[in-house]
Amino acid sequence: MNIYESMGLLGAILSSLTFLPQVIRTWKIKSAEDLSMGMLVIVFCSTIVWLIYGFALWLIPVIIANSAIFILSLTLIYFKITFKKKNRVVK
């Protein structure tokens, strides 16, 4: 493995971790009210495109990073939908 591959893997790991603190916080407070559904959907869709690209060219760092972000953004979308229903006040 050369220095460029190592940097690519390090970048993939760091990129993969970007959503982890938000997922943990959202899970702890059981609220996704402050998260933008538009942003989450854009991130989710972009990871699908990046995964297609990564698999087409077999770019492991791209596949690793976007697989993790795909799962984390899907988790946040799930939280956004389910926590909204659970926390809704019935009048």
Automatic annotation (TrEMBL):
Question: Mind telling me which Gene3D superfamilies this protein's record contains?
Answer: 1.20.1280.290
What does the UniProt entry say about where the protein is found? Answer: Membrane
User: One Gene Ontology cellular component annotation?
Assistant: membrane
Look up the coiled coil feature and give its residue ranges: none
- Which InterPro entries does the entry link to? PQ-loop_rpt (IPR006603)
TM helices/strands, residue ranges: 35-53, 59-79
User: What's in the keyword line of the UniProt record?
Assistant: Membrane, Transmembrane, Transmembrane helix
UniProt KW Membrane keyword:
yes
What is the recorded membrane topology of this protein?
Answer: Multi-pass membrane protein
What name does UniProt use for this protein?
Glutathione synthetase
- Source organism: Roseivirga seohaensis subsp. aquiponti
